[in-house]
């Protein structure tokens, strides 16, 4: 089997890859020599010759596949940056393919659960006519005989994007938290005409990406990394919105638990007080979700992924907070559920690294934007997190806002880029059946591009609507691997 089948994209810099090359070449040479010597013996018996030749070819194929899976796949799963040497060998022109899910409703199941279209995206500097992108229902690396369910030529789609006819239902049950990422039934590859697989990916969860990147993250502060998050995180609904203006009420479609499993680590929460309960609000609109249920989802996730660091931003209290005692009641609820996980707001922790937080077994930074923040539980809650919020109604307006914002020095400490289009009263009245799904569709692909190619060096928290429509989680993971190892002098020649 030709060695080019296993060749990695870009320059080889891993000892793992060099070892693979040596083992494969040595084994192939050894088997070929055995083959030549035995041919002279077997030539006298033509009946066994063809069977023996087929056996040798099969052994070479199986051995090559074994080495590929155990060496090359490990290297690919490490997101390229594993040593400082990689900082200078990581080409900004690397081919990359990734899967997203459109925010638009394609149809619904018989139970009314929303179904959306699968999207394939790619970055390929110089695609040629013979290049192919394939989508599979099985892992094509584990099963090289897999037949794609869709194939396309990237040169025909210069935007690097294709929306398929494949429909996916929203996951309404809790996703599995595994020791590594879990693929969700769809894989994509970028191949040359020779059959060489340049890169591969899958639609996946990232429940433990911070612990998997411990080597890269331990020496960094939360304010120094890119943190993927959601805007109006608790305003989620997985059925089709039918009430008047309800299309502007929901900014997400999966639960907080599943948002965590996918890989989000920042959550924008607005709370209303109704009777004796606290509910998640989207401005003045109450959702079906209680704050207590949200807190328990966070607690459950951390029991399964104890090294993930989460930021809960209690940003607004738009209904029912008529006096400080109501804030006291909410804070008491928060502490009763999450108290042992909360990162104290003290001198010791204000500049703590992620490694320090792991050492102290503290993994929730809770920001509480109220004058009562220190009134009842001093030193527990963090101050409000500054926001880069453009309040723009178009993709062009938001692009210009971020361009101007990132030209200036960014805030010190934690801060958030609110990367979504914001409807105003006029647009809601004129387009009552449009909604946040439509607006997210207009901006999400841009968000991937902006924060991968333009702003990754400065960005901190990046919060989006219908986050499965962008690639910000994987962009953040790759960004943090760069920041954790590479000196800033190398960043200008890199793209996560």
Automatic annotation (TrEMBL):
Cellular localisation: Secreted
GO molecular function: lyase activity; metal ion binding; phosphoric diester hydrolase activity
Keywords recorded for this protein, A-Z: Disulfide bond, Lyase, Magnesium, Membrane, Metal-binding, Secreted, Transmembrane, Transmembrane helix
Substrates-to-products reaction catalysed: an N-(acyl)-sphingosylphosphoethanolamine = an N-(acyl)-sphingosyl-1,3-cyclic phosphate + ethanolamine
PROSITE patterns hit by this protein: PIPLC_X_DOMAIN
Alphabetized InterPro entries for the sequence: PI-PLC_domain, PLC-like_Pdiesterase_TIM-brl, PLipase_C_PInositol-sp_X_dom
Gene3D superfamilies: Phosphatidylinositol (PI) phosphodiesterase
GO biological process: lipid metabolic process
Transmembrane stretches, start-end: 52-71
GO cellular component, as recorded: extracellular region
Domain Phosphatidylinositol-specific phospholipase C X residues, every copy: 216-369
PANTHER family named among the record's database cross-references: PTHR13593, RE10370P
Name the record gives this protein: PI-PLC X domain-containing protein 1
Organism: Argiope bruennichi
């Amino acid at each position: 089997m030709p060695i080019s089948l296993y060749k990695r994209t870009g320059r080889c810099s891993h000892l793992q890859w060099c070892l693979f090359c040596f083992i494969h070449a040595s084994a192939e040479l050894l088997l070929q020599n055995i083959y030549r010597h035995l041919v002279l013996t077997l030539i006298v018996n033509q009946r066994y010759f063809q069977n023996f030749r087929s056996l040798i070819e099969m052994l070479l194929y199986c051995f090559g596949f074994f080495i590929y899976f155990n060496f090359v796949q490990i290297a690919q799963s490490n997101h390229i940056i594993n040593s400082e040497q990689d900082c200078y060998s990581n080409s900004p022109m690397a081919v990359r393919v990734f899967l997203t899910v459109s925010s638009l409703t394609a149809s619904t199941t018989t139970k009314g659960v929303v179904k959306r279209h699968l999207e394939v995206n790619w970055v390929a500097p110089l695609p040629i006519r013979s290049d192919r992108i394939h989508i599979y229902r099985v892992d094509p690396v584990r099963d090289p005989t897999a037949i794609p369910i869709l194939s396309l030529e990237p040169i025909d789609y210069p935007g690097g994007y294709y929306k398929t006819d494949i429909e996916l239902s929203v996951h309404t049950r809790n996703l599995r938290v595994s020791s590594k990422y879990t693929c969700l039934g769809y894989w994509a590859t970028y191949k040359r005409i020779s059959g060489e697989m340049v890169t591969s990916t899958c639609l996946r969860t990232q429940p433990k990406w911070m612990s998997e990147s411990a080597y890269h993250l331990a020496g960094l502060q939360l304010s120094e990394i890119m943190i993927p998050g959601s805007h109006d995180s608790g305003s989620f609904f997985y059925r089709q919105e039918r009430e008047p203006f309800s299309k502007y009420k929901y900014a997400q479609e999966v639960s907080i638990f599943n948002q965590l499993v996918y890989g989000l680590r920042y959550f924008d929460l607005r709370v209303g007080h109704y009777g004796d309960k606290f509910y998640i609000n989207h401005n003045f609109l109450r959702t079906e979700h209680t704050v207590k249920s949200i807190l328990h989802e966070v607690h459950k996730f951390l029991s399964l992924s104890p090294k993930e660091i989460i930021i809960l931003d209690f940003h607004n209290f738009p209904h029912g907070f008529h006096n400080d005692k109501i804030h006291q009641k909410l804070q008491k609820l928060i502490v009763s559920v999450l108290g042992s996980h909360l990162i104290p707001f003290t001198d010791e922790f204000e500049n703590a690294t992620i490694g320090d937080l792991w050492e102290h077994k503290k993994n929730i930074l809770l920001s509480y934007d109220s004058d009562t923040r220190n009134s009842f539980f001093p030193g527990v809650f963090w101050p409000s997190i500054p926001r880069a919020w453009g309040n723009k109604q178009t993709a062009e307006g938001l692009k210009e806002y971020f361009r101007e914002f990132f030209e200036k020095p960014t805030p010190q400490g934690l801060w958030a880029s609110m990367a979504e289009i914001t409807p105003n009263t006029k647009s809601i009245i004129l387009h009552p059946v449009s909604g946040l799904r439509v607006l997210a569709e207009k901006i999400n692909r841009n968000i991937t591009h902006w924060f991968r190619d333009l702003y990754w060096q400065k960005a901190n928290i990046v919060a989006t609507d219908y986050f499965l429509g962008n690639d910000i989680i994987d962009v953040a993971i790759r960004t943090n691997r760069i920041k954790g190892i590479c000196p800033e002098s190398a960043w200008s020649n890199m793209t996560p």
